[in-house]
């Protein structure tokens, strides 16, 4: 007599969905488009390197030659933290379940003998791996192209690159979880996600009070080790944002945000009835 079959575990089922989804996600049209988007900072870094090579004065900020590490820090702040990481979170996170509904494939996933929440968790883990594989090569290329300009030392700045990798991965995980919840709760999640990332978050960071604690960006700031250039319009803006919590508080808050929003998204998937439009 054969032993009774046990129900698959949540993590085991999520691992199967991760394996199924990762290849599809890496080679999707969305990944190709966002890969081109991540090529923008690399092209900018190449242009800065050309300027540094052709002109003895190099790249200047307020009449003074900027060091490569300072330029790289500015690019991390303005291009990756403020723009690319939220964009990746919005475009991928909101689509984890919404794309399956739009493609009318959600029923095939839900007929498998696995927990529904495992589908979301597996696709979320595939998102984290996919976006990390897209972002980190872009950051590394920018680092090696930019940091050595202006007489900067790559070896001295390399430990900060490793911290940047960890910080960006944490940001991708947090934004992805938040927008995964949006994608499971709202019918037009992409619009809501864009408004949250580029409307709500920048707006509440400019004002005193507790609303900024309801944003991912508020806690991400404490993890950025780069300083902005002084005596510039960008520096003035960043001074407004410098009311930041400690690193330990930020890590704990981001972990809570990721865990709670992902759990709520899983609950929503478990209990929601998906009616496919003909």
Structure description:
With 278 residues, this protein is an all-alpha fold. It has one domain. 72% of the residues lie in helices and 1% in strands. It has helices at 10-26, 29-54, 68-93, 95-102, 106-110, 116-146, 154-185, 189-205, 216-220, 233-241, 247-271; strands at residues 60-61, 64-65. A two-stranded antiparallel sheet has the order 1-2. Helix 2 (29-54) runs antiparallel to helix 3 (68-93) and helix 7 (154-185) runs parallel beside helix 11 (247-271). The longest helix has 32 residues, at 154-185. The protein is globular and about 65 Å long.
* Range of strand content: under 5%
Question: What is the terminal-to-terminal distance?
Answer: 46 Å
Number of domains: 1
Number of helices: 11
**What value does the average pLDDT take?**
81
What is the approximate shape? Answer: globular
* Rounded Rg: 21 Å
Structural class from helices and strands? mainly alpha
Give the total of beta strands. Answer: 2
What topology, given as strand order, has the largest sheet?
1-2
Uncertain regions spanning at least 5 consecutive residues: 231-235
Helix/strand order: HHEEHHHHHHHHH
The major sheet is characterized as:
2 strands, antiparallel
Indicate the multimeric state.
single chain
Measured as a percent range, the helix fraction is: over 70%
């Amino acid at each position: 007599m054969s032993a009774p079959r046990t129900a698959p575990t949540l993590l085991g089922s999520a691992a199967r969905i991760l394996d199924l989804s990762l290849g599809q996600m890496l080679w999707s049209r969305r990944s190709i488009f966002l890969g081109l988007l991540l090529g923008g900072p690399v092209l900018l870094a190449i242009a800065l390197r050309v300027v540094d090579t052709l002109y003895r004065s190099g790249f200047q900020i307020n009449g003074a030659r900027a060091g490569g590490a300072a330029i790289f820090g500015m690019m991390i702040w303005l291009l990756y933290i403020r723009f690319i990481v939220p964009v990746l979170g919005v475009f991928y996170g909101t689509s984890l379940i919404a794309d399956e509904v739009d493609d009318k494939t959600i029923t095939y996933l839900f007929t498998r003998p696995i927990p529904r929440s495992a589908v979301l968790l597996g696709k979320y883990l595939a998102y984290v791996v996919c976006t990390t594989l897209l972002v980190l090569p872009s950051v590394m290329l920018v680092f090696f192209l930019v940091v050595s300009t202006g007489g900067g030392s790559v070896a001295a700045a390399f430990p900060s690159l490793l911290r940047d990798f960890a910080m960006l991965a944490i940001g991708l995980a947090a934004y992805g979880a938040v927008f995964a919840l949006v994608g499971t709760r709202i019918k037009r999640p992409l619009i809501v996600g864009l408004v949250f990332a580029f409307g709500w978050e920048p707006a509440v960071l400019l004002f005193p009070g507790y609303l900024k604690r309801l944003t991912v960006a508020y806690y991400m700031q404490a993890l950025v080790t780069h300083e902005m250039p002084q005596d510039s319009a960008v520096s003035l803006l960043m001074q407004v944002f410098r009311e930041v919590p400690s690193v330990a508080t930020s890590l704990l808050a981001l972990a809570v945000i990721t865990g709670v929003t992902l759990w709520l998204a899983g609950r929503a998937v478990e209990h929601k009835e998906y009616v496919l439009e003909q």
